[in-house]
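Ticket reopened. Same input as before:
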Amino acid sequence: MTTPAPPWALLSELTHACPLHCGYCSNPLELTRRSQELSSAQWADVFRQAAGLGVLHTHLSGGEPLLRRDLPDITRAATDAGLYTQLVTSGDGLTAERLDTLVAAGLNSVQLSVQHADPGRSDAIAGRRSFDAKRAAARLVKERGLPLGINVVLHRHNLDAVDDLVQLAVDWRADRIELANTQFYGWGLLNRAALMPTRTQLAGAVEAVDRRRSRLDGTLDITWVVPDYFSGRPKPCMGGWGAVSLTVTPDGTVLPCPAAATLPGLDPPKVTDRPLRWIWEESPAFNAYRGTDWMPAPCRTCERRTEDFGGCRCQAHALTGDATRTDPACSLSPDHAALVALTRPDTSPPLVPRRPTARAVPREVR
Amino acid sequence: MSGDRPWRPRVPPAAVLRRDGARGTDVLLLPERVVVLHGSGRAVLDLCDGHRTVDEIAGLLSAGADETRVRHEVAAFLDRLRTEGCLR
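Engineering reply: fixed in the latest deploy. New output:
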């Protein structure tokens, strides 16, 4: 077996706790308790190991990473290890004092989530009054000269606001906006029918993005993440399983992709049990779907197999019960028709706000 | 772009230029982005201080070499990075 190429990026999920209650949340149904979280010293060790392995970037994410009181120590440890850091935050709790301690710790950039361009509707989707805090946070970030990215998860309840969202990014002096059509994992999968956009909405949003891109002349970088349920093309899962990046969850579980905890039998290793290099290079979990040898038909002989890697393993499992099947998002998948049927829900049920556990979720939603 | 004043490229303050020991190369790090620097890419960017023009940077790097070719290559490299939003 040849040694896999080193990873470029580490997603550091510092906590699952979050003040927001977004119905599209892709974190698992059962969240990790705060008492199970890695300490800042353990994170420092993760960052040193990751940098030694070749990781260059880390996203300090969650949940809401600002809920970690030791976030400045964690940030300092990441920058000391040589990693380029990006705080991924809701903005809730990002005061001037807090941000100053993070900048002093070497923080390189900030990515801020927004749920809608309209303050009231953003708060409704987030399940908390948070829009004003986001606007204030954006101003603080720019005042300190840090690059600012806005990220928006798009779905039925905000897809019509794409043009206004780009305007918001311009008004907030963001450097980037990521318009990411929702993917259905974790809690978001429960809400699939409530989140599913219509084809008409999508066409309007694509048109708005194209129009904005042609007018903005490079002053704002717009990333549009295509909705794979509609495109007929599977997304290239993480740029390939165990190829580009790794995720460390709040309790130290190491995953090839943030959703992979749902795969049965994967048995993902923990940084508290094994060296990160062994996990990346040798663990069964990271080798399970690495490369193309594991592929079934029609992927095995497909000319796109090294571009999309057969799509997403977690989605294949969620929709077919078999993680080795071709992602049903692919028009060549034998399961594609069933996925397309899901894009035409009979009804759009109400969005169920995120809670820490799936217990007590109404049965009709599950 | 810059009218009659020549461009004086600058690596933005938010970017990090560093050695990547694991891959044995130099890299330019920006949010969501890594630029792997081959050949004299690092030497060119180290001279992008916002004061020197592209011609001055090429002149400093062409000592003894074919100056026209170096100027052409340096300009093409810097233009590409600016188009991609990595340089100001």
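Residues 16-83 of chain B form a domain with the Arc Repressor Mutant, subunit A fold (CATH 1.10.10.1150). Helices of chain B lie at 41-46, 54-61, 67-83. Please confirm and we'll close it.
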